[in-house]
Amino acid sequence: NQLVKPYRLAVGQSLFIDQGKYLRDTEMRINGYSYPFISNYVLEQTLPYLTCLSVFSYGFSMVGKLIPPILDDTWMIQKARQYQAIPILTLTPLGPDGKFNNQLIHSVVNNEDYTYRLIYEMLDMVEKKNYGAVDIDFEYILKEDRDAFTAFVRKTREVMNENGYEVSVAVAPKTSDTQ
């Protein structure tokens, strides 16, 4: 793809993914993240190339109450289904300032009641809106919350899998010591 170090991509840049000898026997899933304010035109131009569409994003409160996106995401879910892409509920710990908030993570993953409230509210939303999966997209997790976060992911996976839904975890590349 003629990328030059540090391999940054530009918005709208196309990449060629060779399905030759290295990927011939590999199942490939291609996911895209999308905000509810995306234009219908852009979404329709993109969906034919995706197997999954992560709707960005659902948040949560300090006590594990699920917070849906400000704009209605129903149309995106329906559009993804129309193109046979799996719509994914994306869960992020964004604070009121719009930034990742590790105190939200800390509060929920260290309290079993809050954990299960959030998991079952996600399950309810997945079923109500016809999502096909859940993606946990947390950044800046505190070092001391590592095991609690892992337990949160495990519990989420157990509940979602029991109900026929997949769970993925987005792992951001660490770019600083504070991350």
Structural overview:
With 179 residues, this protein is an alpha/beta fold. Helices cover 33% and strands 16% of the residues. α5 links the parallel β5 and β6. The model has no long low-confidence stretch (mean pLDDT 91). The chain is globular, with a radius of gyration of 17 Å.
CA-based shape: globular
Q: What's the mean pLDDT score?
A: 91
State the end-to-end distance.
29 Å
- SSE ordering: EHEEHEHHEHE
**Biggest sheet features:** 6 strands, mixed
Low-confidence stretches: none
Structural class: alpha/beta
Number of helices: 5
Descriptive labels:
179 residues, alpha/beta, six-stranded mixed β-sheet, 5 helices, 6 strands, 33% helix
Describe the structure concisely.
The chain has 179 residues and is an alpha/beta fold. The protein has helices spanning 40-46, 74-82, 102-109, 112-129, 146-162; strands at 31-34, 52-60, 66-67, 86-91, 133-136, 166-169.
Describe how the helices and strands are arranged.
Blueprint: E1 31-34, H1 40-46, E2 52-60, E3 66-67, H2 74-82, E4 86-91, H3 102-109, H4 112-129, E5 133-136, H5 146-162, E6 166-169
Parallel strand pairs: 1-2, 2-4, 4-5, 5-6
Antiparallel strand pairs: 2-3
Helix pairs in contact: 4-5
